[in-house]
Amino acid sequence: MQRLSVSLTPERTVTDYGEPFIIAEIGANHNGDVAFAKELIRLAKESGADAVKFQTWTKTGLFAREVYADNPDLEAQIDQYALSFDDFAELKAYADEVGILWAATPFTEAEVDFLVHDLNVPFIKVASMDLNNYPFLAYIAAKGKPMIVSTGLSTLAEIDQAVQVIEETGNRQLVLLHCVSLYPPRDEQVHLRQMDTLRAVYPYPIGFSDHTVGVSIPLAAVARGAAVVEKHFTKDKTLPGWDHAISADPEEMAFLTREARRVWRALGDPRIVPPEDEAKKQAFRRSIVTARPIPKGTVITREMLTFKRPGTGFPPAALPYIVGRRAARDIPADVVLREEDLL
Fold first, then answer.
1. Could you tell me the CATH number of the domain that includes residue 159?
2. SS3 label, residue 236
3. How many angstroms separate the CA atoms of 150 and 126, rounded?
4. How many helices and strands (H and E) does the chain possess?
5. Within this chain, do residues 15 and 133 fall inside the same structural domain, yes or no?
6. Range list of β-strands (E), the chain
7. At 260, phi and psi to the nearest 5?
8. Do residues 310 and 336 lie in contact, with contact meaning Cβ atoms separated by under 8 Å?
9. Which residues make beta-bridge pairs with 342?
10. In a domain, 24, yes or no
11. Of 16, 34, 325, 343, which sits 20 to 30 A from 119 (CA to CA)?
12. Would the pLDDT of 4 be above 90?
């Protein structure tokens, strides 16, 4: 299967085992405050993230009316945390000013239209809750934007159906994120090896949407070849709200972005060849060395030879080539054997 890459922007293409694309998921961590949302955008940029991501839900587009009737506290939170389209346009403009990509997860077709036609976002992120919302996936895919799709809550059959729905629109700009929709999951619930399963089944870049506490697990995902890593982001984990406690603060996000790129660089080349600097250090290896003096004309035997550093002469593997040859001169003991020493 030929692996595909996805161009999220003209300057940035993501691929398996490529430089990881780090998304700071602000989500609703702005707590409904545009000024605070701008501060989070700035902090994400300073922390080294490639993009910030918001969620454009509204009270009428997210839950049925009966949910609010049963849970008035939820309705109050939605009213408090919701931002308007004008707010998002302002935040997108601020992100452009700061110099960080701005994207969002939509939850209605009207939100998709707003993100694509009004804000011209570089990509659309699809939440795990909508992976089996096939009409919605088709609507998004038909816009022709790159799609980053989380796979939490889903079976492989549901993921496969979602991929087919997207492909049928002609859109093959797809990134799949392994995700566990628990907040937070226990380590044994993360199952990073499922990234390998997705990679074996689909040709698209595979990444990881993280809900764990800390940054160890997303770094492990990078070591497993994650093309994209999404991590919730906040200024203060103790703030009231839905996701602050599982989010990375600026110090953790800076560590994650720095170390993720370090891990990526260390992955290197799968071909087994020594790095250039290592190839220069042949002195670390051993050569064939005389174990005792060998008079001129003597037939060289195995007992006359040993192996010592530096590795600048015959390697140990050349022993059959040496044994049985005659000494071209008197060869002292404990010297590296050379071609000119042999007849």
1. 3.20.20.70
2. coil
3. 6
4. 13, 12
5. yes
6. 6-9, 12-14, 21-27, 51-55, 101-105, 124-126, 147-150, 174-179, 206-210, 228-232, 287-290, 305-308
7. -65, -40
8. yes
9. 327
10. yes
11. 16
12. yes
Between CA 142 and CA 168 the distance in angstroms is 9
8 Å CB contact between 20 and 260? yes
pLDDT band, residue 1 (cuts 50/70/90): confident
Task: Clarify whether residues 81 and 166 are in a common domain.
Answer: yes
Tokens 């403009």 belong to 93
Residues 154-206 pLDDT 10s? 999 999 999 999 999 999 999 999 999 999 999 999 999 999 999 999 999 99
Residue 144, Cα to own-chain centre: how many angstroms? 24
pLDDT at site 279 = 63
Q: Is residue 128 part of a domain?
A: yes
Both structure tokens of 134: 């096939």
pLDDT tens-digit map of 100-109: 999 999 999 9
Give the whole-angstrom CA distance, residue 136 versus residue 192. 27
Place of tokens 């590296």: 336
Between CA 294 and CA 328 the distance in angstroms is: 10
Q: Which residue is listed with tokens 């939490």?
A: 152
